[in-house]
Amino acid sequence: MAAGASRKVSAASARAHTRGAKQNNSFKLLSGIFNKILLIFFVGILAWAYQAIQPPAPRICGSPDGPPVTSPRIKLADGRNLAYKESGVSKDMANYKIIYVHGFDNCRHDAVIATQLSSGIVEELGVYIVSFDRPGYGESDPNPKRTLKSMALDIEELADQLGLGTKFYVVGFSMGGEWTWTCLKYIPHRLAGVTLLAPVVNYWWPGFPVNITKESYQRQLQPDQWGLRVVHYAPWLSYWWNSQKWFPGCTVMRHVIDNYSPKDLEIIAKLPGSNMEHARQQGEYESLHRDLVMGFGTWDFGPLDLENPFPNKEGSVHLWQGDEDRLVPVQMQRYIAQQQPWIQYHELAGAGHLFPFQDGIVDAILRAMLKH
User: Fold this and answer.
1) What is the dihedral of CA 195, 200, 205, 211, to 10 degrees?
2) Fewer Cβ close by (within 10 Å): the C or N end of the chain?
3) What are the pLDDT tens digits along the chain (372 aa)?
4) In whole angstroms, what is the distance from residue 4 CA to residue 8 CA?
């Protein structure tokens, strides 16, 4: 009796074990398939994300699919071409030779010191001005390997190839002001004088008190605060961030009206047509995005680290700033001027970012620099 019961239990256990084994095998099979699907899905997401953050290839000027070359260019030592435009008197007759560095989303045609300078001053002082397309803008080749030092060396090589002499003047406006700081750092011995017009500030420059950078940073529009964080901390995401449609990107790229003061808006209403299309023609990544990454990346120096290039007063450095500038915070410019007394600081009451376009301002700016 006991033996029979034992055999029945064993048979039932065997059948249950068999069913359990089949169910277990089925579960493992389904689990394996599900894991493979998850893996494929994950790999697909990664592939999509990788493609999404990759910028399009640049349309190099002069290439079969690129825009035409319409301006004179010099060939730099590394093989890149740099486009330029000359204004004023002939450089052979000039008393003063000035290199102008354009701002963000501009090009060589946007040389405000050439377009706004009165003809009387040009002839009276004998002023020659050359503006150039910064790498990736207009008709200058992109420079994927650009560094802070390469910015200054491009300017030095432009001066040498155009025969501007051992010393020359540099004027930088807005984002071009950052290039001007690099000239003071890397080629001070080549400078006859320097002017920075509302130069863009980097909120991560070394040496600035946290309270000043924080206050200045928080004055920017919210989308720009997020955008600059991306540019600084994850530059490889900058193209995706500013081209995706989920979150608002850089407002400066979109020329949002809130970035301009009432005085700026009056000036904009009177300005001729924009050169933005020409500035961006090789691709927004090579012009705008690389500009942002370099401008707001990690610098190995800042304006507070610079030394006076004219200890014997053989030249001068000037910084001009409007106190109602909504793009560049006046607080950081004031701090630079306080810490670097050799910089002659000019703060314009009621002026916005576009103050160089006000009547007579460029004449005053150049007279201050050239008659130091």
Assistant:
1) 110
2) N
3) 444 444 444 555 545 455 555 556 555 555 666 666 655 555 555 554 555 567 888 999 999 989 999 999 999 999 999 999 999 999 999 999 999 999 999 999 999 999 999 988 999 999 999 999 999 999 999 999 999 999 999 999 999 999 999 999 999 999 999 999 999 999 999 999 999 999 999 999 999 999 999 999 999 999 999 999 999 999 988 888 888 777 777 898 888 999 999 999 999 999 888 899 999 999 999 999 999 999 999 999 999 999 999 999 999 999 999 999 999 999 999 999 999 999 999 999 999 999 999 999 999 999 999 986
4) 6
Distance CA 74, CA 161 (A): 7
Separation of first and last alpha carbons in the chain: 121
Give one word for 207, left, alpha or beta, with left for phi > 0 and alpha for psi -120 to 50.
left
- 191 forms beta bridges with 168
Burial class of residue 275 (count of CB atoms within 10 Å of its CB; 0-12, 13-18, 19+): middle
